[in-house]
């Protein structure tokens, strides 16, 4: 529920009346069940596809196709979380008969660790576009779109995961050298 609160601008349009805080308060009570909104949030937190089946071998609904950022990750693409939906109100997790703890979707983390890290990263302040620098660049004759693009690229660079950024730069260099 904390994730939905942090991302309330996104989830607002999916909540009747757009009253996210009231929704979170109600859904945080014991005995209140989750639904599509909570499943969507869970799929985003874990970067994991969630497939829901009901009376068919084809998914009735799929949330969040898992993101594969490079060829090395294709072999490591996580198995989707599969749920069955019964009676219009209950979900069960679908696992293989031989499933055991060794098949954990996320290994090596303490319970709640991944969730807390993901939510904390969303709470970190985002550096706003430097309006003065943008105005100065525009006054010097630069094109507005180029200036905005440069500012946005700088923001993305400052917020990027350093390992992923280094890998992207290395791939870009390799592509450039082969041309």
Automatic annotation (TrEMBL):
Q: Which GO terms describe its biological process?
A: protein deubiquitination
Which part of the chain is the OTU domain? Answer: 1-97
> InterPro entries, per this entry?
OTU_dom, Papain-like_cys_pep_sf, Peptidase_C85-like
Q: Which GO terms describe its molecular function?
A: cysteine-type deubiquitinase activity
The superkingdom of the source organism is Eukaryota
List each coiled-coil range.
none
What Pfam families does its record include?
OTU
Q: What is this protein called?
A: OTU domain-containing protein
């Amino acid at each position: 529920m904390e994730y939905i609160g942090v991302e309330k601008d996104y989830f607002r349009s999916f909540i009747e009346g757009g009253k996210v805080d009231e929704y979170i308060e109600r859904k945080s009570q014991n005995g209140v069940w989750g639904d599509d909104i909570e499943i969507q949030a869970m799929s985003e937190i874990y970067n994991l596809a969630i497939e829901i089946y009901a009376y068919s071998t084809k998914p009735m609904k799929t949330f969040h196709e898992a993101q594969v950022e490079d060829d090395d990750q294709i072999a490591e693409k996580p198995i989707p979380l599969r749920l069955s939906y019964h009676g219009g109100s209950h979900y069960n997790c679908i696992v293989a008969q031989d499933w055991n703890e060794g098949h954990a979707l996320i290994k090596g983390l303490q319970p709640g660790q991944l969730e807390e890290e993901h939510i904390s990263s969303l709470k970190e302040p985002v550096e706003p576009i430097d309006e003065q620098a943008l105005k100065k660049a525009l006054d010097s004759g630069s094109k507005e779109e180029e200036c905005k693009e440069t500012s946005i690229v700088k923001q993305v660079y400052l917020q990027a995961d350093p390992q992923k950024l280094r890998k992207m730069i290395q791939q870009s260099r390799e592509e450039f050298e082969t041309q």
